[in-house]
Design goal:
alpha/beta; 6-stranded parallel beta sheet; globular; 10 helices; 8 strands; two-stranded antiparallel ribbon; Rossmann fold
């Protein structure tokens, strides 16, 4: 049986997929793990939480539940995570889907993919509000949230994100890009300040656009579910 594993981005948790998962096609298993230090695992947040910890989180889900033929979806920051997972366990994956996400190349970290203005903004927030190692939650407009009900549901659940994960690069085998089919979903209605993801789908031919904000699983769950059902 095919499985969707949905990996949330910075500040979020597995909770953010709630509206989407109930709309995904029948006959698939859906897993929405929460990364270390975030969501209901916020008690584990420390300055030592790394990108590698988050990659390990998802690899453990795949291996512990012996999941295969997995459509691995990564939102935003989680583009780093799913790329690292693909390097570790490519035999368990059917497709990588980057949902308005960074797409790193070998040796790149998130800051390499997002540009200097974005890094400056993050650095200022981390140092002024997070003792240099915690990144405070982004404001609603950064996430593409404008409806009052969406803001009221999402914002109280966001938690600080470990800064170290944005600095740590992924190491990738040369053959990875051709070994696993990849898709990119670009949420075109709003973009983070600093021009992040100016060329989001470079090297990915299976490209789609959604007319919604960055947090598409919140703002357009029906449209996103329909799209995932087509490209899996």
């Amino acid at each position: 049986m095919a499985s969707f594993v949905l990996v949330h981005g910075a500040w979020h948790g597995g909770w953010c997929w709630e509206r989407l998962r109930e709309r995904l096609p029948p006959g698939v298993r859906v897993h929405t793990p929460t990364l270390t230090g975030l969501g209901d695992r916020a008690n584990l947040l420390s300055r030592d939480v790394s990108l590698q910890n988050h990659i390990d989180d998802i690899v453990q889900v795949l291996e512990h539940q012996d999941l295969r033929d997995v459509v691995l979806v990564g939102h935003s920051y989680a583009g780093m995570v799913i790329t690292g997972v693909a390097a570790r366990v490519p035999h368990r994956l059917a497709r990588l889907v980057y949902l308005d996400a960074v797409v790193p190349k070998d040796g790149q970290c998130l800051f390499d993919c997002s540009g200097p203005k974005f890094r400056s903004w993050i650095d200022e927030r981390a140092h002024s509000q997070g003792e240099g190692w915690r990144i405070p939650p982004a404001p609603p407009e950064f996430l593409g949230l404008s409806e009052t009900t969406d803001v009221a549901w999402v914002m109280p659940r966001l938690v600080p994100h470990p800064y170290r994960t944005f600095c740590e690069p992924v190491q990738l085998p040369q053959a990875l890009e051709s070994a696993i089919p990849r898709s990119y979903i670009n949420c075109i209605d709003s973009k983070p300040r600093g021009g992040a993801r100016a060329k989001p789908a470079e090297g990915i031919e299976d490209y789609y656009e959604l007319s919604t904000g960055h947090d598409a699983m919140v703002t357009a769950p029906r449209e996103l579910a329909e799209l995932l059902g087509r490209i899996r």
